[in-house]
Design goal:
The protein has two helices and no strands. It is mainly α. The termini are far apart.
C-alpha cells in the first residue's frame, strides 16, 4: 500500500515525465499538411499521387 507522500511523489514524477516528453518532442513534430492541400481529398484521389514515390 502506498502512503500519501508516496502517491504525491508518483503524481509529481509522472507529471514531470509527461511535460518533459512534450517539451523535447515539440520541435521534432512537423505539420503534415500545413498548407491544407489535402483537406478535400479522398483516399481514392490521393492514392495515385502516393504511388509515384
Amino acid at each position: 500500500m502506498m502512503t500519501k507522500s508516496q502517491c504525491w511523489i508518483l503524481i509529481i514524477w509522472l507529471s514531470f515525465t509527461v511535460l518533459a516528453f512534450a517539451y523535447f518532442i515539440d520541435d521534432k513534430l512537423k505539420d503534415f499538411d500545413a498548407e491544407h492541400k489535402l483537406e478535400n481529398m479522398t483516399a481514392q484521389s490521393l492514392a495515385p499521387h502516393l504511388f509515384t514515390f
